[in-house]
Amino acid sequence: MTDENFYFVMADRFSNGSSANDDGGLGSDPMVSGFDPTKKGFYNGGDLKGLLDKIEYIQGLGTTSIWLTPSFKNKAVQPEDKSAGYHGYWVTDFTQIDPHLGTNDELKALIDEAHSRGMKVYFDIITNHTADVIGYEEGNRAAYISKDAAPYKTAAGEEFDDRDFAGSEDFPALDPKTSFPYKPKLEPGEEELKVPAWLNDPALYHNRGDTTFQGEDSFYGDFFGLDDLFTEHPKVVDGMVDVYEKWIGDFGVDGFRIDTMKHVNDEFWQEFGPKVLDYAKEQGKDEFFMFGEVFDTSKSFTSQFTTRNKMQAVLDFPFQDAARNFASRSQGAAQLEAFFAADDWYTDADSNVYQLPTFLGNHDMGRIGSFIAADNPGADDAERVARDRLAHELMYFSRGNPVVYYGDEQGFTGPGGDQDARQTLFASQVPEYLDDDLLGTDATHATDNFDTGHPLYSKISELAALTAGHPALRDGAHQNRYASDGPGIYAFSRTDAADQREYVVAVNNSRTAQTAAVPTYIAKRTYSRIYGDAGSAAESKSAADGKLAVTVPPLSAVVYESSGRIPHSKAAPAVVLQEPATAEGDNGRIRVAADVDGSSFYEVSFEARTAGGEWEPIGTDDTAPYQVFHEVTGLNPGTAVEYRAVVLDNGGHTSASAARTGSVPSPVLVMQKPAEGSSVDGKVEVSATASPEKPDYTVSFERSVDGGGWAAIGSDSSSPAYTVFDDVAALGLADGTAVRYRATMAAPGAANVVSDIRTVVAGEIPQPDTVTVAGSLNSELGCPGDWQPACGQASMALDPADKVWRLTVPDLPAGTYEFKAAINGGWDENYGAGGAFNGQNIVLEHPGGAVTFRYDHTTHLLSPVYASQQPGAVAAAGSMNSELGCTEDWMPACDQAQLVLDPADLVWKLSVPGLPAGTYEFKAALDRSWAVSYGSGGSPNGANISLTHDGGPLTIRYDHFTHVMTAG
Q1: To bridge 167 with a disulfide, which of 121, 267, 424, 721 should be the other Cys (CB 3.0-4.6 Å)?
Q2: 293 is annotated as an active-site residue
Q3: pLDDT for 167 beyond 80
Q4: Which of 22, 259, 348, 409 is catalytic?
Q5: 284 — alpha (psi -120 to 50), left (phi > 0) or beta?
Q6: Per-residue confidence at 523, pLDDT binned at 50, 70, 90?
Q7: What is the rounded CA–CA span in Å between residue 775 and residue 796?
Q8: Which is catalytic among the residues 98, 216, 293, 622?
Q9: Cis peptide upstream of residue 784 (ω within 30 degrees of 0)
Q10: Is 113 a catalytic residue?
Q11: Which distant-in-sequence residues (6+ apart) come within 8 Å of 28 by Cβ?
Q12: Helices 368-375 and 381-397: angle between axes, nearest 10 degrees
C-alpha cells in the first residue's frame, strides 16, 4: 500500500459533537469522570460525533485514511498520575468505545460514512499493556526486578526462562502467588474490571515493576504502572488476535497502527501479524494494512520489524528526524540524500520502504510547527510558514504514505510534546494552549480553528491533489539525483515502472534561490514544471548528458514532468554481484549488492538459496545503488548462502548475474554493564546482550584483575539480557585496582564469540592531591609565568558530589591558548587532548569572558565549558513533580521542577527542603519540554533515573557536559 494520505487525529481534541457524553456518564467530579476542559491532561470534550460532523473538513485535505488514536474504554482517571485517559492508552475494555467519545454504533456510523466517501478508518491499537489496575503486595509502581535477580517460576516452583517457550503453545502453568518477583493484587471492586475476561488473570502479566525503557525491562516492565501483558504467553497472543479480529469483522476497520511495538517480543509479532492479516483478507479486505510504532531513528533497527518480524510496515521515525533536520534546521542536503540511500534496509520479498507512513510530528514528540519555532527563534512568521510548507512538500513528494497530524494544517505549535502537542481544534479553555503562537494566522486557541483558507490547509490540499493526479509522485521509484554540499538543493526522481514517465523533484532548504544541474534518465527532453512558483522556469530541456537545469526559490520545491516516456532499452544491461558481506549495523543480515552496466530505469531482483535448496526471492530494488539486506537469523552461523541477481530493463529484457556465495555471520556479544570507567564495590552486575538474539544461547562471563589472566565468574542462559553478579568485595582489592570484564559464547557454527571489554575501578577512584590547568594562559590567571604546574591560581577544586575537578575563570582575555592537566604539581603525570597520558596540548580558541574548566580523573579529560553552551532551562521532570508543588507529575514546564545554573561551576542545581520518602523516577528535560531529554547515565531520551529516598532534604544536580542528572 503506497497511495494513502493519513489524517492522524485524537478524537477528544478534534470537535465536540455532543456535550452529553463529555463526562462519560461518570458525573461532574473531574477526578472521577476525567472531564475538565480547563486542563490539558483531562478529557476536553471531543468525540466521534464531532469527527463525523467535520468529515468534510478532513476530506478537504485530500485525506484518504482517518487514523484514530486509541478509542477503547479507558480507566477515566489514574489518581497516581493526576490526569485522565483522554488519550486512549489506559484501556480497561477492548470491546467498547470509550463513553467519553461515544458509542460503538457511532463508530460504525463514522466508518460507514468514511467508506461511502472512499476513505478508510484506521485504529490505533495496544497489545503491550492495559490500564494500571494490578498492584503489588510489596507496594505499587515498584522498581523493576530483573529475570536474573528473580527468575520466573512454574506453579510447581521450578525456575524457567519464558523466552524458551515464547511462540509455542506449551507454556508452563503459573501461580500469581509464587511465580513472579512481585505478588500481584487487585483492589476490591476491580477484580473483573477488564474486558475480555481473560485480561483479569494477573498471571498473564509480567509483574516485575516499572520499566526504565532500556535493556530487558523495556520488554518486561510496566510503563509508569500500566499493567504489562505477558506477550510471550500463548493465551495473550490468542486473546489479542481475537480482540482485534472482531473490530475488523464487526465494524469494518481498515487497518491498525500498533502502539509500542519495540517493547513486545518478536515471537508475538511473528504470530499476531500474519493471523490478523489473513483474517482481514478472509473478510474481503485485501488492502488491510498494519504499521507499528518503533520509536527509533536507525533504519537497521526499525526495519527488523518488517523483515524479521513479518509486519507490513512501521512508522518512519527516521524520516521524521531527517525531514526536521532538512526543512527546519537547514542541515546539509547531502545528509538527506544519504538518508534516502539507506532505504533498502526495508526491502524484502513482500515489502519495502514505499509502504512506510511518513510524518513530521505527533502526539508524543511534538508538532512540526513547534520544532520549526524552536529551531528558528529569530525567524518571522513568513519564514516559519515557508519551512512548514517545505517539510510537507518533502513528505508528499518523497516515498511513503504521508501523515498529517491534526492541527498541523492550522499552524499549531506548542512548547513541546505529549500534552503540549494535543491542543483542541475547537475553542479551548486550557490556559497553556491559549498562550500558543500559531503559524500563518492571527487566530488563537480561544476560537475554533477549522479554517479551510489557512495557508497550510490550502498547501496540504494542493499537495494531495497534485499527487493524486500524478500517482508516480506517490508510488513511483524514488531515485536520488543531486545534493548540495551544504544547505541547498536535494533532487530526486519519481518514476512509475509501467508509465515510465519521469518526474524530477527538487527541494531547497536555503534562504536564497539555488540552481543545480540534475541528472535524469532522458537526454535532450523537455520537462514541464507542474509544481512551484514563477521563480523557476516553466520548462527546461535536459542536456546531451541528461542533466536538467533547475532553479528552486528559497525554502520551497519544484516538480518537473518529462514530456514523454523513458526510451525503451534495446537489451538488458549486464549485472554483476558484489561479494556478499555482513551488513554494517545488523549482523543478522547479509548485504547483497549488484552493479548494473547502464543508467536507465531498471528493477533488480535478488534471490538466495542454501545447499540443496531452491532459489527464493529476497527482494527487488528499483533504484541505484541496487541492494538488499538479506535476513539470515534463521540460519546457523557459518552456513553458506548462494545469491544471484536478475535485472529487468524497461523494454522487458532480462539478464542474470553469476552466483556468488556468502556466509551467515556469527552473533555479536556487546557488554552492557558495568559502565566503562565506573567505580565498583560489593556485588557488581555484569551483563551483555547478543545480536541477533536466540533463546538457546548461554553466555559466560570472565574477569581480569590488574591486567592479569581471565577467570570465569559465571554464565547465564536467560535472555534478552545475560547477567551474572561478581562479588568484588570478596577479592580484597585496593582502591583504584583496574578490573576488566568480558562475555564469551559458543553457538552452532560459532565456536568462540567474544564481546568487547569493560574496564572499571575497584572501590573509590583515588583522586590526586592537586590538578592544575597548566598552559599558556597561566600568566593571565596571575601565575608568575606560563606552563606552571604548581601555580595556585591555576589549581582546580574537587567537587565531592560528582568527583569532578573544576576551575572557573571569571574573565579570561580573548585569545588562543594551549594547556594540559598537570597532576600533583608537576609534569610526571599529565594528560592532554583526548585524556591521553602526556598527550598533545589542548587548544582553546577563547572569545573572551568567563570559562569553566572541568577535569574528570576517571577519563582524564580536561575540557572548557561555557555558560553560552547551556540550555535555557533544565527540569527534573518525573514522578515526584507533584510533591514539588507541580499540578501533576512528569511536567518539564513546571516552575517548581526547574534547576538553577550555578555560575561558580556551571552545574544546574535544585535544592528540595523536604521530599517525602518513596521511590521516584525522573529525567532531565531541557527548555521546559520533552523535545530534548536525558535519562540514566546521561543517555539521550534514555532510561528513567530511579531514586529511592528515605525522606528529607535533597539536592538534584545536572551537568550539561555529561548530561548526567543525579540526586542525593
Answers
A1: 267
A2: yes
A3: yes
A4: 259
A5: left
A6: very high
A7: 14
A8: 293
A9: no
A10: no
A11: none
A12: 130
